[in-house]
Amino acid sequence: RVIYRDIQSGAKAFLAAEYRMCVMFLAGFGVVVAMLVANGAHGFNGKVGFMTAFAFLTGGVTSMVAGYVGMMIAVYTNARCTVSAAQGPDAIAWRESFNAAFRGGSVMGFALSGLGLLVMYVLMVIYSWMYAFETEAVELFECIAGFGLGGSAIALFGRVGGGIYTKAADVGADLAGKVVAGIPEDDPRNPATIADNVGDNVGDVAGMGSDLFGSFAEATCAALVIAAQSVDLVSAGWDTVIFPLYISAVGILVCMAVSFVATDFQPVRNEASIERVLKTQLTLSTLGMTLAMYPVCMMYMPDQFYLGSKTYATACIGMSSSKCVSGGAHAAFACIAAGLWGGLLIG
Question: What is the mean pLDDT of residues 197-204?
Answer without folding.
Answer: 75
